[in-house]
Amino acid sequence: MEKLQPNLFFPFAGVAAVASFASCSNKQKPVEQKPLNIVYIMTDDHTAQMMSCYDTRYMETPNLDRIAADGVRFTQSFVANSLSGPSRACMITGKHSCANKFYDNTTCVFDSSQQTFPKLLQKIGYQTALVGKWHLESLPSGFNYWEIVPGQGDYYNPEFKSKESNGKYVKEEGYATTLTTDHAIEFLEERDKDKPFCLLVHHKAPHRNWMPDTKYMDLYEDVEFPYPDTFNDNYATRCDAARTQEMSIDKNMTLVYDLKVDELKDKEAYKKEWNIDGWQASLDRMTPEQREAWIASYKPRNEKFINENLKGEDLVKWKYQRYIKDYVRCIKSIDDEVGRLIAYLEKEGLMDNTVIVYTSDQGFYMGEHGWFDKRFMYEESFRTPLIIRYPAKIKAGSECTALVQNIDYAPTYLDIAGIEKPDYMVGTSLVPLFGGETPKDWREYLYYHYYDYPAIHMVRRHDGVRDSRYKLIHFYGEKNEHNDAISCNELYDLQSDPNELNNLYDNPEYADIQTRLQARLDKFRVDQKVDEY
Length: 533
Ligand code: SGN
Ligand code: CA
Prior knowledge:
Blueprint: H1 15-22, E1 37-43, H2 62-70, E2 72-74, E3 77-78, H3 84-93, H4 97-100, H5 117-123, E4 127-132, E5 145-148, E6 159-162, E7 170-171, H6 176-190, E8 197-202, H7 241-244, H8 276-284, H9 288-308, H10 312-347, E9 354-360, H11 379-382, E10 386-389, E11 398-400, E12 404-405, H12 409-416, E13 446-450, E14 462-466, E15 470-479, E16 485-493, H13 511-527
The structure holds 2-deoxy-6-O-sulfo-2-(sulfoamino)-alpha-D-glucopyranose and calcium ion (CA).
Residues 44-45, 83-84, 105, 152, 207-209, 275, 278, 373, 456-457 line the site of 2-deoxy-6-O-sulfo-2-(sulfoamino)-alpha-D-glucopyranose.
């Protein structure tokens, strides 16, 4: 049964009510100022390794770090299905993929008749808005205002469609990250200022193929980034899934589309590379000025690369450097634009009664295991960054080590607005963690399920459980030559083997742990009515 309990402090008479409440008789205890507003910023594929409040090895993200410094950084934050569409469906419904039915990016259309947190917030008087990437195929529902890009969107001069454009995409001039922020600010400017708001700012960046803004094309060019420890992983001890994937920097990352060596695109050896047409289309979108800036920056570096005729290890190293540099350049724009949005909130005096959340739809491989992309339940892509600023309730600079997951976002936003979550949202509000203590009955296990196979990058279907130390992964969906279903399991001790190189499944020393995790996995499958494994 769904219970709608409007915020008891401010039943949406708006900001005016906040002021009058706060100014009532000074004999009364000061009333805690409930945040009325939510700004939920989510990027696409931004991994915690590339955020200096999580990892100092690579780049500086001062504006994101400021959110963490003013609020809380979740150190054990995960997704339920490490892929854009499914992850977004989990976060908006508070349900696992098997319940919200958006299993994969390849076949699914989101059933928008389902209950979602924006719909519930809207019902109690919130102004709800979504700008940027949506990726759930059906039209957004539960939003007063939306401006979305088609599918993955484009970096340069992207199209947006809105409620007002009657479903027609309109091309806008500029860089996606900037334009998405412009639309966010546009909504904030035009909103009904007597009502609380919930604004979802969902950026396209830093999704493949990592095209930086013209002002950052040369950033970090002289820096050499170190390989992660597992770059040359040989996948010994693992199931076939780690060997049969197609997300290797060496084997699957392309020189033209991914690494932007435009000068190779007409050469016979490269004509068949993945998405040459996509590359050409992204160049064709540019204005003459953008194209000129692009050529001025990339062409001399590309020509040098072609002349060097690198092979083997040297070629892989060059690919890794180009990849990681373009990725961090995209993040630099994200960091700037988050800073710009925060500056707007500050200017408008909204910082005290607005909760600011920054996260990503999943993590990403920055060369760990030799990979790019995500999908696997291994740490780098199972994790997602999560920082929240809410000064009334969260101590500045705090850290939360509880196991949290993106199915928790919907219950959290409802809780912030003073609404009890519907029972079918299996996620848990994070609000009880804000005080700095983890409640005794907090979850001890996370469930994960990935379904997008066969599909691009060829990561096999798997589900699994993780506790604070161990992880059990079950790969399934393959058949042998007799057409019998075959599966394979992996067990990791993340304390002694944080890089997940040593599969302990069926190791007698870990028999008890394996049995315990298997029982938990079985229980999740029954409780969540999991439909395949
Ligand atoms: C596209 C990308 C893939 C990526 C998926 C899913 N190829 O298909 O590399 O894994 O999106 O990403 S591309 O040639 O179109 O760039 S997700 O973030 O939307 O899940
Ligand atoms: Ca993504």
